[in-house]
Amino acid sequence: RAGSALSGKHVIVTAGPTHEPIDPVRYIANRSSGKQGYALAAALAGLGARVTLVSGPTALDCPDGVERIDVESARDMLAAVEGALPADAAVCVAAVADWRSEGVAGQKIKKQKDGLPDLHLVENPDILKTLSALKESRPDLVVGFAAETENVTEHARAKRERKDCDWIVANDVSFGEGGSVMGGDRNAVTLITAEGEVSWPEADKEQIAAQLAAEIEKHFR
Ligand code: C5P
């Protein structure tokens, strides 16, 4: 878009859940729909950015003008993000599974007569932290999300420090009836930067995305 500081800037957005295989038919996953990340990718593209959307499995269509790379697991997602570098900004919206099964069985694991299968979990790579720690190719702006259910801004501020990212978008995933953020259409967030924080009222994920995209555009002015 003419006059947008995001014109020609490359932004990587991660979105959706990850699926961590256990055997050929089973996986570990979470309730992320990908809506917030896809909405952000669309908003950034609307402001003229070249957007690479690295997406876990979702039911959503790729937004117009966005290049999507489909991945399944956290390790695939990290490899795709690294492959998409260099970027001016990276926004990690994906709900990456924290753990995966250490081994992936080649055949469907059979129900056992006595006892349960021995699932051993190991930690997944942290994509946001990895991006933030890059030396040469660190994007100028690295943004993370923090889904919290209590002491939201306090936990999110600590997360910003721990992950070494520039901004954190904190959202209270317990708001609404029965915690309707994950998979739902609405969100309420606080943007936390080194300078301070600003809370935006509850809104559609598209509106939240437009506000965040506008802040990112401002950063590049
Ligand atoms: O630590 P936590 O999962 O709450 O952090 C959330 C933020 O970190 C989100 O921006 C998410 O996309 C990112 N993240 C990641 N890789 C992980 C775990 C989280 O990029 N393995």
Topology, element by element:
Layout (H helix, E strand, L loop, with lengths): L9 E6 L4 E4 L2 E3 L6 H12 L3 E6 L10 E5 L3 H11 L4 E4 L6 E3 L19 E3 L3 H7 L7 E8 L3 H12 L3 E6 L2 H5 L6 E7 L4 E8 H15 L2
Parallel strand pairs: 1-4, 1-6, 4-5, 6-9, 9-10
Antiparallel strand pairs: 2-3, 7-8, 10-11, 11-12
Helix pairs in contact: 1-6
Bound molecules: cytidine-5'-monophosphate (C5P).
The site of cytidine-5'-monophosphate has 13 residues, from helix 3 and strand 9.
Give the low-confidence spans.
Answer: none
CATH topology call? Rossmann fold
Pattern of helices and strands: EEEHEEHEEEHEHEHEEH
Radius of gyration: 18 Å
CATH architectural arrangement: 3-Layer(aba) Sandwich
The outline comes out as globular
Strand order of the largest sheet: 5-4-1-6-9-10-11-12
Give the class from helix and strand content and strand pairing: alpha/beta
Note down, in words, how this protein is organized.
By secondary structure, this protein is an alpha/beta fold. The chain contains 6 helices and 12 strands. It has a single domain, classed as CoaB-like (Rossmann fold). The strands form 3 sheets. An 8-stranded mixed beta sheet has the order 5-4-1-6-9-10-11-12, with helices on both faces. Strands 2-3 form a two-stranded antiparallel ribbon. Strands 7-8 form a two-stranded antiparallel sheet. It is globular, with a radius of gyration of 18 Å. Bound molecules: cytidine-5'-monophosphate. The site of cytidine-5'-monophosphate (C5P) has 13 residues, from helix 3 and strand 9.
